[in-house]
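In keeping with the milestone schedule agreed at the kick-off meeting, the structural modelling team has produced records for the first pair of proteins. Each record is given below as a sequence line and a structure-token line. The laboratory manager (R.T.) confirmed that both were archived under the project's standard naming scheme.
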Amino acid sequence: MNDFAGSLRGQTVVVIGGSAGIGLETARQARGEGAEVILTGRNPDRLQQVARELDASSTAIFDANDLPSLERFFEDLATPIDHVMVTAGAPHYGPLLDMEPAELGRGFSEHLVRTVYVARCAAGKVTAAGTLLFMGGTGGRRVGVGLGLLSSVTAALPALTASLALELAPIRVNLIAAGFVDTPLSASLLGEGLEARREQLRATLPIRRVVTPADVAALAVHIMTNTALTGATYDIDGGQQFINPAAT
């Protein structure tokens, strides 16, 4: 059996966007499995607090959408790493015809171009039995006014992931597609409507509860440790995509 199957002990996990939400919880669970963690984020105070809490090996402060900074981060990594998870970024909403070219370009770049760039930068640093793990969503599979950019990115990411898995083999590349997850980002997007959204989902989701960062982190750790998984997209939305659109 491959030495990397079933455990993160002795491995190094990099979480880009690891100071809050899904990234933070993934780092916490990876640490609990015996991994060393390297965290990045944009907020220095929050990042340092989390680093102390998890006894992180190191941290780096930069915007993951700043590609030169992203490249420097990987260049400066002193030792080989085993897994990279990217959770940074937010969805873009609005009618496509109202978006300026710069906004459209930014929306695609922050998800698609960044994904390729992470893969390129990480290729020489990740061990052969390692993983690249990206975040997408299930909500964008429904098209609608205001969802055009989100839907386009959602459709493209699985094919991009599969293509990168072939190009980077034997390094594994996978995608997690989440629905609504109760994170600080969700709270910032919904504002005063957050609790109503939670109640709506508790009443309508087949699992009868809201998906949490811990749920997604558990899936992320499984994908890292199961060495048979590559080029695939893994849904985690509590069944949200299968219920009446009016209820979601």
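The second protein of the pair:
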Amino acid sequence: MIVLRSADEIAMIGKAGAILAATLEKLGKYAKPGVQTKELDRIARDEILKRNGYPAFKGYRGFPGNICVSLNETVVHGIPSERKLKAGDIVSIDVGVRFRDYYADAAVTLGVGEVSEDAARLIEVTRNALYIGIEKAQPGRHLSDVSHEIQKFIEANSFSVVRALVGHGIGTAIHEEPEVPNFGKPGLGPLLEPGMVLAIEPMVNAGTFEVETLDDGWSIVTKDRRLSAHFEHTIAITQKGALVLTK
């Protein structure tokens, strides 16, 4: 069942989103060569707690980190560790925040130091795909209209869309209905209505769309081990269009 949220509930999700946005902004300043991914995890935890939120991923289905830190060929769910960032890496940072009983979810992919032209283009296309999806998230459209526009843009730029992972509804749980794919035909699925809250998150690979899970049980990597990028915002559907709650 898709829950339609009241204006007060959307405001609460927005408060979680503000904590999240501030956390991602701070992490962007520390994602430098030589920094361990577990240090990013600590910084995120401290920032979220300082702002009276709670790291939503900590312990979720047994996940050991406060955030997901995914390097290079890791698409999502990278576990923070002693691994150090190095110049030329790209790092996807996915953060979930709970504020009181409400959740927000967002992600960015950053270049570490100077990255290759191909890596920079992958990041740019993935970011733009997210905003194309957000722009299409208008009341009265089908959910798959959003999915289709994201896929069309990504494939027009010669990248591939991960099929095994999708976005999701969000509100009083980190994952709610509906699923929000980044691919598919237009004109399908539920109609978007004011009060829907969605986490739209294109995951884009430089090579094949196929992925696999590493032995740690969490890290999902590209099957061909080429680069992957990931961007995400939590949005609310309003009468006027999509309202980004994680800016």
